[in-house]
């Protein structure tokens, strides 16, 4: 009887040891996978060198100004960060502005956005805009025309109601793209224009949906007939996004 009890105890110990070994092995394999594909997990730290994943927009929206500036600096995109703008309205202004023209191509002209928008734009250019230009036109986008970012106003310029993301430079309106040979693809003229131009614009819109919390195009309403509105919608719950 004592031998049978000892045998059972040994078997239990061996079984528990096997479970522990398998658990440890599984944990090591999981950590390897997490390290190889950090973009697939909501709790990993954002890097602007990682591919775009299902949680990239949430991570961009949650970026603290100092961390955001550091990420841009790692890519050599942080020449003009930490720009501050105050306003008479408490809901307006920003402390984390980034001057996009400071780092060259594509040229945005004289444009300053919040840091998280600048970070999202850098990923959008690399992962969507330039590949789409190469695929449709065998060219590179050298300039992106906008209707600006900062505007101390409420949504749609109304006298009351919610404040626009533009009030904190947390949004940008994209009007057109210019290629190396001078070709200009404009949202207003080309959304329903020549097939390759229309397809390019829809590709860049769809790619923006993976990076910005809000992406609005001419498919949304008449107010967006001439631009793509992109914003980070701070304060929205994780997982929230709008793509139209």
Automatic annotation (TrEMBL):
InterPro entries linked: Extensin-like_C (IPR009683)
Transmembrane spans: 12-28
Pfam families for the chain: Extensin-like_C
Keywords: Membrane, Transmembrane, Transmembrane helix
Residue ranges constituting the Extensin-like C-terminal domain according to the UniProt record: 68-244
Superkingdom of this protein's organism: Bacteria
Protein name, per record: Extensin family protein
Organism annotation: Sphingomicrobium clamense
